[in-house]
Each structure stands twice: as structure tokens, then as C-alpha cells.
């Protein structure tokens, strides 16, 4: 963990090691009483394709399963 300070224009500079590890683009998310920086990939679609490359089901099948699980959890 490291500290960073905003400059007089409100800019935050991340340490070089973090920029090299996580990149230059981030989503800023408010979490209760804090903020979280979430790295954004250069090509988010490529990241999703890589993440789901081993999934054999169609999007429709996954959606149907998620619906069924939600209904079961809700006590249908």
C-alpha cells in the first residue's frame, strides 16, 4: 500500500509500479466511505473472451440457469 496526494488541479498520480502492473485506465467506484480504482483493460471485450473461453454454454443457457437459481434462492 502507498499514499498519494491530489495536486492543485485535483489529479492523482499513481506510482510507476502500479501503472506498469495495472495500466493507465480505471473505473472509480464509491464503496461505503471509500473509493476503489478498478483497472480497465485496453480492450475489455478481449478480456471477457479470455475469461469465458472455456465456457461451453450459450449466453441464453447461462441466463436461463441464472434465472432458475435466482427463483430457487427466492423460495419459489
Automatic annotation (TrEMBL):
Residues 4-45 form the SpoVT-AbrB domain. Keywords: DNA-binding. One of its GO terms (molecular function) is DNA binding. SUPFAM superfamilies: AbrB/MazE/MraZ-like. This is AbrB/MazE/SpoVT family DNA-binding domain-containing protein. It comes from Natronomonas salsuginis.
Amino acid at each position: 500500500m502507498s499514499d498519494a496526494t491530489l495536486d492543485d488541479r485535483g489529479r492523482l498520480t499513481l506510482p510507476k509500479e502500479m501503472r506498469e502492473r495495472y495500466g493507465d485506465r480505471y473505473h472509480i467506484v464509491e464503496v461505503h466511505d471509500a473509493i476503489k480504482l478498478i483497472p480497465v483493460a485496453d480492450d475489455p471485450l478481449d478480456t471477457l473472451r479470455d475469461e469465458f473461453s472455456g465456457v461451453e454454454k450459450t449466453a441464453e443457457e447461462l441466463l436461463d440457469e441464472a434465472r432458475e437459481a435466482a427463483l430457487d434462492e427466492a423460495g419459489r
